[in-house]
Amino acid sequence: MSTGERDRVEWMDRTKPEEKGGTERLRRSGTPAHAPTGPVGAPGRAMTSFTPADEEKRRGVRRMKSTATGLLLLVAIVYTLAKWAESAGAGAWAGYVAAAAEAGMVGALADWFAVTALFRHPLGLPIPHTAIIPTKKDQLGVSLGEFVGENFLSEEVVRQRLRSVGIAERLGAWLAEPEHADRVTAELATALRGALTVLRDSDIQAVVSEAVTRRASAQEIAPGLGKMLEKVVSDGGHARFVDLVCVRAHDWLVLHDEQVMTAVEGGAPGWTPRFVDKRIGERVYKELLRFVTEMRDEPSHPARGALDRFLADFASDLQSDTDTRARVERLKGEVLDRAEVQDLIASAWTAVRSMIMSAAEDERSQLRLRARASLLSLGRRMATDAKTQAKMDHWVEGVAVHVVTTYRKEITSLITETVASWDAEHTTRKIEAHIGRDLQFIRINGTVVGSLAGLLIYTVSRTLGA
C-alpha cells in the first residue's frame, strides 16, 4: 500500500468512526488488537491520534515533498536536454549544464535517501541503518531520558536556574498584593474544608485518642504537678480557693444546722440520754461554725497555716517521694482507662473540626484574617528583605535538588517508558508531520548545492584540462 493510500485509509477511519470498528483501525495502523487504548492504559494515546493541527502539518509536508520531487524531476529533464544538446553539437555550454544537472540529481537522490531513511526503508528495501525512528524508537527514548537526566536534572543546573529566577523576590512581590493574598487565603480555606470533609471523624477521633492516651501514659505527671503546686503555694495563689471553700462551708453550715446536729446525735452511744446527745450536737455544731467562720475571716488563722504546710509537703512528695509518685501514676492510669475520659478525648476532635470549618467558611473569622495578615507580611518581607529572600531561595533550591536527585531515575524512566509505549508507525508519522517539512528543504538544498558543486568541479576539470 502506498503512502497516499495509507493516508486516505487513516483519514476515513478518523472521519467515519461509526463505520469502522476499533479493532479494524488498530489492524490498519499495525497496533495489536489487544493493546489498551483508554486514557489509563494507553500512555501512547497522544502519539496514536492526529489533531487538526497535525493534519495541517502533514499537508504542509506533502506539499514540500512535491516541491522537492518536482525539483528533482526538473534537473533530470535539464540533464536529458543538456546531454541531447551536447550530442547535437550545441556548444560547450551544454556540458556545463549537463554536469550541473547531473550533480544536482545525485545530491537530490542522496538527500532523499537520507531523509527517507529516518522514517522508513527507502523503496521498501530493508537496507541496513534505515527506518531509524521506528526501529530505534526505544533506544532513542533511553538516550533522551539519559540526556534529560544529565543536562536538565543535575544539581548544578537546577541550582543555577532557580538562582537566576529569583523565586522568593517574585513570589513575595506577588503575595504582597492584597488581592493576591485574599485569593491565596480563599484557596487555603477551600483546601482546608475539603481536607476536613474527606477525613472520617471516627478515624481522626481514634488517632487523637490514641495519641493523647499514649502521650499521657508515657509522661510522668507527678513531678510536674508538684512543681506547679509548689509555685502556687509559694505565690499564695491557693488563698482564694481556700477563701471560697470557707465561705461555701460557712453558708452550708448555716443552712444545714439541723442535719449536722442530727448526724452528731446519731453517732452518740445508745446508753446516753437524748437531751445529752442534743446538747452535745448543738455544742459540736457551734464549735464547727465558729471554726469555719474564723478561718473565713482571719487570713492568719492557724488552720490556714497548717493547710499551707500540708500543701507544701504534698508538693515536695509529688516531686521526690517514690510512693506518692507511684500512687499518682496509678490514679492517672485508672482515670485514662475510664470510658468517659476516652469519650471526652475523642469528642474533642468534633468540637475542633466544627470550629475550624466555621472559621474557614467565614471571611471575617480570626483564622482567615490572621492568615491573610500573615501572608501579606510574609510577602512584604520576601519582596524587600534580602535575608528572607536568601533563606527562601535556599529552601526552594534544597527542596528542588532533593526531588531531582532522589527521583531522577523515576523521571528519566518515565520518559523512556513513555516513548517505549508509543506505537512505532504512528510515532514515526507524528514526528514526520512536525519536522518533515523542514527536512524536505534538505532535499531542495541538496539539489541546489549539488548542482553548484558539480558545475564547479566540471569547470575546474575543464580549466585544468585545457
TrEMBL record:
<protein>
    <submittedName>
        <fullName>DUF445 domain-containing protein</fullName>
    </submittedName>
</protein>
<dbReference type="InterPro" id="IPR007383">
    <property type="entry name" value="DUF445"/>
</dbReference>
<feature type="compositionally biased region" description="Basic and acidic residues">
    <location>
        <begin position="1"/>
        <end position="27"/>
    </location>
</feature>
<feature type="region of interest" description="Disordered">
    <location>
        <begin position="1"/>
        <end position="62"/>
    </location>
</feature>
<dbReference type="Pfam" id="PF04286">
    <property type="entry name" value="DUF445"/>
</dbReference>
